[in-house]
Amino acid sequence: MSEDKKIEYINETVMLEQLSEGAYQEDVVEDTMDLSTIEEIDIPADMESHVGEKREIVEQIEEEEEEESSALKEVFLFLKDLAISFAVILLLTTFVIRPVKVKGSSMYPTLEDAEIGFSNLIGMKLNHLKRFDIVIIHLADRDEYLVKRLIGMPGDTIEVNQDVLYINGEPVKETYLDEEYKASEGPIFTGDIAELTLGENEYYCLGDNRPHSTDSRVYGPFQKEQIISKGIFVLFPFNHFGFKTW
């Protein structure tokens, strides 16, 4: 290669390198533009609309997730309250009160058929049984419950003669019986009960509606463990609302 051509080639090479360096510096300048320059760049309207739609979708998804989370919390709180209520009811019905529904007319007119209320479990432990309490008796062999009035306590001698109740040889006025109803049933209401003396753990119980009651006259004296609660608080019907001995 001639000397002149070699010099020309070198000059062209240097020129190209200088141009490349200039382009690179230009690129660097462009890449390092401050934010204010970037913010001033116009965004096409259709792109803004697209971004807005994306934002709305994201917000909608977030709202739905919040609603779902809130619904799950509500369900959890409901189940929690339900469990607590069930536990409280279980404790109450095991140790404090017992739901009852009267069946039949053996305690009429003191208690009527289909009356609903509850009986006192804790009273059995705190106040013990007293003569003339209304009691709930469980017949385990028949899985049946009776509601009767406690007439004779352990060690008592019981007798009914010509419709007069005798306890330990003394006549006792049965003020809990409805005199008008007694009269409507005729001259014999209770009938005679032969004298008997109750054992250490025996209780003699009769229904207030003596002509229509199956009680100790049939079953004999009841054991204390058969008496599960005492007294009845009537809730329904509302016109009978209140205590029936406690």
Number of strands: 12
Helix coverage percent = 40-55%
**Global shape:** elongated
CATH topology of the domain at 97-244: Umud Fragment, subunit A
> What portion of residues belong to β-strands?
25-35%
* CATH homologous superfamily identity of the domain at 97-244: Umud Fragment, subunit A
Low-confidence stretches: 5-41
Sheet of most strands: 8 strands, antiparallel
Tell me about this structure:
The protein has 246 residues and is an alpha+beta fold. The chain has a domain at 97-244: Umud Fragment, subunit A (Ribbon), CATH 2.10.109.10. Helices cover 41% and strands 25% of the residues. The protein contains 6 helices and 12 strands. The chain has helices at 3-31, 35-39, 45-95, 122-126, 179-184, 216-219, and strands at residues 97-101, 116-120, 134-139, 144-152, 157-161, 164-167, 170-172, 193-197, 202-206, 222-223, 227-236, 242-244. Strands 1, 2, 3, 4, 9, 10, 11 and 12 form an 8-stranded antiparallel β-sheet that branches. The protein has a 4-stranded antiparallel β-sheet with strand order 7-6-5-8, with no helix packed on it. A hairpin with a 5-residue loop joins strand 11 and strand 12 (242-244).
